[in-house]
Amino acid sequence: MALHCAGKADTNHGFVESFNCRLRDECLNEHLFTNLRRARRMIAVWRED
């Protein structure tokens, strides 16, 4: 079975890299997520801020 993956050009975009870096540094590394629902909620709160 073949899987389609997005090309590297999508992830090399400066805005995407910057967003992913900020998300990781400011949200994901700061919280311990016990389940997917909590992770989604915390990420939504972070995005609104």
UniProtKB/TrEMBL annotation:
Source organism superkingdom: Bacteria
Name the UniProt record assigns to this protein: Transposase
GO terms classed as biological process: DNA integration
Chain ranges of the Integrase catalytic domain: 7-49
